[in-house]
């Protein structure tokens, strides 16, 4: 088990996401920015900055067990209505959040550059309630995902405990469309293609939707060998037929949905408890990164190597982090393998490891 | 008969502390006037945290009063008062020590019966981690930009906690390490210099920098402090430096004393006690000789000789000189140990501490002093009580550690309740109401006995804001075997989902606790929705539930009824008929739905294809007959549900025609 670097913050982290560098500004990528969502007692959105490890001259010695290093510096904070359940980055200046009060909020990342200094801040632009139960109570929005298209007029898909998907157009968030898609909780959502949405449900199903016919599922996938419920879902960055989902028993199910009538799936046992979030590694998509209730972060080699039958799973944890690691994000802009994660123990956790050799699949 | 001890320390759970609201809810000193106007205070305690809601209320309802009472705006406010909580800047400390606590419990669990095998080693490692967390917290607090009174208080508390913890560590863990010299003296001196301000090197520099060194009033008190704290090499350096500025004879003696001080014997684990004692005696004799020689010169005009003689007296272990010079009992105890009993072991501490403490006014002792003295005198029950006064965190973790080093049994006899369980419970109660720390709080509960019951009660009250959190709470309850709490939480969630119209989720929760009655009621609701709307929309709801492998009569009925409709729609009339008949025969349908089922059979009976054989038709007719004769309308006012008498007559005619057809075929 490898040791995560940690910074004790004393806040409950619920979501984290790296901000892409801003092109054509004084922003140099020697400094990287990321946004964290805080829940529990302090419901806030916080902007942090950290040094880009690619520019570090000497790789530092491994930190001692008890060290509490200063990994990142808090730049700015903004109040958030409810626990931040998920953060979606639209552009270097715009991000969307899903809240436990069922709202989708759009925040502006503001940069003020002067000759001598630059400061950044977060500002709420607008928000809309997307998830409600039939009796009017707000429902927790469990996750959101930004449509992967290269234009500013994108749609944000969010899912919630009311079993619905909401499609929120960024340009007019009031014109959102809501569709009931499941009778249980919809736990995760992702866009394999700009016209297709996949969701994971508490009842152990993956449902695919065509954005042009959003009311009914184009396919429902069930892994017959497992009855566990899914906690999250992620799409492969380039191969749209590959999906990964995390279960409440600590497994990751890797799907190949080229044939939706007969999808292929494979279960990898990675964690011992609920997998809160999975993601394909943005720069090495042969790996799936996941975080879990068992307080670990894992890098799983999902694509089988011809030479070995064993899967390569690298797990990271920290002695002082015993509670659930609820969120993480891998930085796609660095050569170094840079991951930031947050936990219920109030720790900001980080993995900085040299990039692995590129592998072709 | 077991010897009965008096319960010296019955812990009073409700300390009678008076808390004043600032500002008060009514003007000070005008209470009687205030109450005469039909006013009183009402309050409600938060089920989870230490919060109370207080509001002004009428003694009698205003409707029952003859005259109208004026309403004041300030009486319309509900005040939420927090009694004690976890301050924000303590959260990192709480989380870090929780991690150590969990690891410690795991170590002890895995060792099981072979407690000895764990060794003092790993306990010492954990203890050091606790102390590091305290020191880290002190550092963080001191780095805070604005040092308020509150932060200064917290720093003091953490200093006290560290002093207490460190002392227990050296007495019970450090000097118990196998294979090491077990003299406590060097460890005690280390403890003393770390936890109580030692003579600072900067002070020495400042004093030495003064022009007229020999006449400096700060010089000799500083030297005496150095001697008391056993900083002999620094003392020797100072003496040599000072000697250059003194008169010839004083300078000579200063140099001699410096030389002797440098030669102070240090014990090591390789040396035998006998050889060390011999060396010590020789060193002590040298000091004695020097002391005699210097005192023979007294009284003298040389101002340096007298203080020099005091320094020598301290170093030769003269109890009177040490007592006279030591400012605090810790200093005196340390100097006595160092200079007169350098090979003492931990068991010498109680008697020595007793002698030293007698010289002080116990009434002036702070809580920290009392805790330390109690620990030194092996008064462990008293020690725990003082620890609790310093901080509840300290008493809880201290009691836990003491249990692991098997010294808590003494306290168990003196307390009315198990002290470890009690203090951990109190700490858990403090945390569980905090939004970020509920999970940490539950960990401190999970000890068995009374704590389990309390834990179950608290677990049921943790607010379940989201589905994920509900599942986490349920997971913890299962982990600790709190069956009752699991049951109650599922029922609560089931009702919540039902209210929200999430019938599938509601059924799933009720299924977890086998609440068949509620599941039946929800199924009836689904059936009623179908009858009202005429649209078979419950498919996804029951599919998700059935996927989880639940079996219930009503659910089966709903599924098979849907299958019947699907077959009918696909024009597989024979299959559909068989399905309908099997629903009736297996009697899974609720009585009020039978009439609807029979009416559903009419199109099949009247269809072009012969669906029901003679026997099957007779079965259908028998059900119709039973329905018409049934004396007890089960739901609503009619036994026929949504069906009226006329439809049933059509059914009877259809049956008769079908019967006739079936005979012909």
Automatic annotation (TrEMBL), chain A:
Top-level taxonomic group: Eukaryota
Entry protein name: Nucleoporin Nup43
Primary gene name: NUP43
From TrEMBL, chain B:
Region forming the signal peptide: none
Principal place of residence: nucleus
Pfam families: Nucleopor_Nup85
GO-annotated molecular function: structural constituent of nuclear pore
Location relative to the cell: Nucleus, Nuclear pore complex
Cellular component GO terms held in the UniProt record: nuclear membrane; nuclear pore outer ring
GO biological process: mRNA export from nucleus; positive regulation of DNA-templated transcription; protein import into nucleus
Keyword field: Membrane, mRNA transport, Nuclear pore complex, Nucleus, Protein transport, Translocation, Transport
InterPro entries on file: Nucleoporin_Nup85
Entry similarity comment: Belongs to the nucleoporin Nup85 family.
Subunit structure, interactors included: Component of the nuclear pore complex (NPC).
Function according to Swiss-Prot or TrEMBL: Functions as a component of the nuclear pore complex (NPC).
PANTHER family xrefs: FROUNT PROTEIN-RELATED, NUCLEAR PORE COMPLEX PROTEIN NUP85
Protein name: Nuclear pore complex protein Nup85
């Amino acid at each position: 088990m490898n040791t995560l670097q940690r910074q004790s913050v004393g806040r409950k982290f619920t979501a984290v996401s790296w901000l892409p560098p801003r092109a054509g500004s004084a922003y140099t990528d020697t400094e990287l920015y990321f946004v964290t969502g805080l829940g529990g007692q302090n419901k806030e959105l916080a902007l942090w900055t950290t040094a880009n490890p690619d520019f570090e001259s000497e790789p530092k010695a491994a930190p001692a067990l008890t060290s509490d290093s200063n990994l990142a510096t808090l730049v700015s904070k903004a109040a958030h209505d409810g626990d931040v359940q998920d953060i979606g980055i639209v552009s270097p200046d715009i991000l969307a959040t899903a809240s436990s009060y069922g709202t989708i909020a759009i925040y502006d990342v503001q940069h003020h550059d002067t000759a001598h200094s630059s400061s950044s801040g977060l500002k709420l632009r607008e928000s809309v309630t997307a998830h409600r139960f039939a009796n009017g109570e707000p429902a927790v929005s469990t996750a959101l995902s930004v449509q992967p298209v290269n234009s500013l007029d994108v749609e944000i898909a969010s899912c919630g405990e009311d079993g619905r998907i909401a499609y929120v157009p960024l340009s007019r968030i009031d014109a959102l469309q809501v569709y009931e898609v499941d009778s249980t909780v919809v736990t995760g959502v992702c866009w394999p293609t700009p016209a297709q949405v996949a969701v994971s449900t508490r009842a152990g199903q993956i449902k695919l939707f065509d954005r042009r016919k959003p009311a009914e599922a184009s396919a429902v996938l069930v892994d017959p060998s497992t009855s566990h419920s899914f906690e999250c879902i992620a799409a492969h960055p380039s191969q749209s037929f590959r999906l990964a989902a995390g279960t409440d028993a600590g497994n990751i199910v890797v799907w190949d949905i080229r044939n939706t009538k007969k999808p292929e799936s494979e279960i990898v046992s990675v964690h011992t408890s609920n997998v809160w979030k999975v993601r394909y590694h943005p720069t090495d998509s042969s790996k799936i990164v996941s975080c879990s209730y068992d307080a670990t972060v894992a890098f799983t080699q999902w694509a089988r190597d011809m030479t070995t039958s064993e899967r390569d799973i690298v797990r990271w944890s920290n002695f002082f982090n015993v509670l659930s690691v609820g969120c993480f994000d891998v930085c796609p802009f660095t050569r170094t393998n840079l991951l930031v994660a947050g936990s219920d123990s109030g720790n900001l956790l980080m993995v900085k490891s040299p990039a692995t050799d590129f592998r072709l699949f | 008969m077991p010897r009965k001890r008096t319960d010296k320390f019955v812990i009073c759970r409700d300390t009678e502390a008076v808390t004043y609201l600032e500002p008060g809810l009514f003007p000070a000193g005008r209470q009687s006037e205030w109450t005469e106007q039909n006013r009183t205070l009402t309050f409600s305690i938060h089920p989870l945290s230490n919060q109370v809601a207080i509001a002004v209320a009428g003694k009698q309802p205003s409707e029952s009063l003859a005259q109208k009472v004026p309403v004041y705006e300030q009486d319309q406010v509900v005040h939420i008062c927090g009694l004690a909580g976890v301050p924000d800047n303590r959260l990192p400390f709480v989380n870090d020590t929780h991690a150590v606590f969990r690891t410690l419990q795991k170590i002890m669990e895995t060792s099981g019966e072979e407690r000895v095998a764990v060794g003092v080693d790993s306990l010492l490692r954990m203890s050091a981690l606790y102390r590091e967390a305290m020191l880290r917290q002190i550092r963080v607090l001191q780095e805070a930009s604005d040092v308020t009174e509150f932060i200064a208080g917290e720093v003091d508390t953490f200093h006290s906690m560290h002093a207490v913890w460190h002392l227990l560590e050296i007495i019970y863990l450090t000097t118990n390490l196998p294979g090491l010299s077990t003299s406590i003296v060097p460890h005690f001196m280390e403890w003393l210099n770390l936890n109580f301000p030692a003579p600072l090197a900067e002070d020495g520099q400042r004093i030495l920098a003064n022009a007229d060194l020999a006449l400096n009033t700060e010089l000799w008190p500083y030297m005496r402090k150095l001697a008391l704290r056993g900083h002999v090499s620094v003392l020797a350096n100072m003496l040599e430096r000072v000697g250059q500025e003194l008169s010839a004879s004083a300078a000579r003696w200063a140099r001699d004393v410096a030389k002797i001080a440098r030669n102070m014997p240090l014990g090591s684990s390789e040396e035998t006690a006998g050889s060390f004692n011999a060396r010590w005696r020789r060193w002590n004799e040298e000091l004695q000789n020097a002391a005699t020689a210097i005192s023979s010169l007294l009284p003298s005009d040389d101002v340096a000789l007298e203080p020099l003689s005091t320094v020598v007296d301290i170093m030769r272990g003269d109890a009177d000189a040490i007592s006279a010079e030591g400012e605090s009992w810790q200093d005196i105890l340390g100097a006595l140990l160092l200079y007169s009993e350098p090979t003492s072991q931990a068991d010498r501490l109680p008697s020595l501490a007793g002698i030293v403490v007698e010289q002080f006014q116990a009434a002036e002792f702070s809580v920290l002093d009392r805790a330390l003295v109690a620990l030194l005198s092996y008064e462990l029950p008293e020690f725990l009580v003082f620890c609790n006064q310093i901080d509840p965190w300290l008493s809880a973790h201290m009691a836990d550690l003491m249990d692991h080093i098997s010294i808590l049994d003494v306290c168990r006899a003196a307390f009315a309740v198990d002290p470890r369980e009690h203090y951990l419970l109190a700490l858990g109660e403090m945390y569980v109401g905090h939004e970020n720390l509920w999970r940490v709080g539950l960990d401190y509960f999970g000890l068995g006995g009374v704590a389990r019951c309390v834990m179950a009660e608290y677990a049921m009250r943790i607010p379940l804001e989201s589905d994920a959190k509900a599942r986490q709470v349920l997971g913890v309850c299962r982990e600790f075997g709190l069956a009752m709490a699991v049951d109650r939480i599922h029922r609560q969630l089931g009702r919540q989902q039902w209210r929200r119209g999430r019938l599938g989720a509601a059924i799933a929760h009720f299924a977890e606790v086998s609440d068949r009655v509620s599941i039946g009621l929800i199924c009836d609701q689904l059936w009623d929705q179908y009858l009202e709307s005429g649209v078979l929309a419950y498919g996804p709801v029951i599919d998700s539930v059935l996927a989880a492998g639940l079996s219930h009569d009503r659910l089966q009925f709903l599924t098979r009824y849907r299958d019947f409709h699907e077959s009918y729609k696909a024009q597989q009339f024979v299959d559909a008929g068989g399905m309908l008949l099997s629903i009736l025969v297996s009697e899974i349908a609720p009585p009020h739905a039978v009439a609807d089922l029979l009416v559903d059979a009419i199109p099949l009976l009247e269809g072009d294809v012969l669906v029901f054989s003679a026997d099957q038709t007779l079965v259908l007719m028998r059900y119709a007959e039973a329905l018409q004769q049934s004396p007890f309308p089960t739901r609503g006012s009619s036994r026929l549900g949504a069906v009226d008498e006329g439809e049933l007559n059509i059914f009877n005619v259809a049956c008769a025609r079908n019967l006739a057809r079936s005979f012909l075929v």
